[in-house]
Design brief:
By secondary structure, this protein is an all-alpha fold. The chain is built from twelve helices and two strands; from the N terminus they run H-H-H-H-H-E-E-H-H-H-H-H-H-H. The chain has helices at residues 7-17, 26-35, 47-62, 66-75, 85-99, 117-138, 142-145, 158-176, 182-190, 205-225, 232-236, 241-259; strands spanning 104-106, 112-114. A two-stranded antiparallel ribbon has the order 1-2.
């Protein structure tokens, strides 16, 4: 008998592909289902439920998972995301957290590869526990610890670092009222002679230099990790625990300075 996805596996895959903020749009789902000649039984319902129902119906009919696998391949073709490469990596991360329980993973070239299902789950939890313990020993900021989750470490430590970098942007927006992102957000909030957020009194040349250096530090973190698909070598870098600890400690420093910024 050919391999089939379990009910819980289909639900996890559909939830990842139909994620409200980072998943496929309704029109993209409709186009992919039509191109693969998969029935779309309830096109008006929530995206992930729509995908779930379509996947279940097709697998029950064919008694195999080939159509669902092909849907994933087509949805994750890198050329679809040329104009918004950061979206590809967010979707890949969400999908791989779901596929880890099926012993599968989507690579940076959009291919579906087999991985060790049992060790993937247990290894992710072990990594999360170890990383959280080490960072607590270092006394890192609580806003960093919340990203040390097993689902973020199903692939490697890279996604914990990526999500923690997103957390910096969230705090900048929250404290400043700005809605931008990346380097532009840093320019608007931390740069200039009268920045929206100042980490010191900006009176002396040393203080102004410190403010400028802090802005460059935040830009550096964003440049390395906020848009990973623009740096293919970085995606392919399998980050180890020591690298993650050091980088997350820098992120912790940034959070502490932002907390006290005026």
């Amino acid at each position: 008998m050919e391999r089939r996805f379990s009910q819980s596996e289909i639900e996890a895959i559909a939830a990842a592909l139909g994620d409200t903020s980072e998943g496929l749009t309704g029109s993209e789902i409709g186009h992919l289902l039509a191109s693969l000649k998969m029935n779309d039984p309830e096109p008006g319902i929530t995206k992930w439920k729509r995908l779930h129902n379509a996947f279940v119906e097709r697998q029950n009919h064919s008694q195999n998972r080939r159509a669902i696998m092909e849907f994933i391949r087509q949805a994750m073709r890198p050329e679809r995301y040329v104009k918004c490469p950061e979206r590809f990596e967010s979707m890949r991360a969400n999908l791989n957290r779901a596929l880890a329980f099926s012993g599968l993973a989507v690579s940076v070239d959009g291919r579906i590869n087999a991985v060790d299902r049992a060790s993937t789950i247990s290894e992710a939890q072990r990594r999360a526990d170890e990383l959280r313990a080490e960072l607590k020993t270092r006394g890192v900021h609580p806003d960093v610890l919340r990203f040390c989750k097993a689902e973020l470490l199903a692939d490697d430590y890279f996604h914990a670092v990526l999500e923690s970098a997103k957390g910096i942007a969230e705090k900048l927006r929250s404290k400043s009222g700005m809605s931008d992102d990346g380097a532009k957000l840093v320019d608007l909030t931390l740069c200039g002679s009268t920045p929206l957020l100042a980490i010191n009194d900006l009176i002396t040349e040393s203080q102004r230099s410190e403010q400028s250096g802090f802005a460059n530090l935040v830009k550096g973190v964003f440049g390395m990790f906020r848009n990973p698909t623009a740096h293919e070598a970085r995606i392919r870098w399998s980050m180890n625990k020591e690298d993650a600890e050091d980088i997350l400690s820098i992120v912790s420093l940034i959070h502490r300075r932002l907390d006290s910024a005026r």
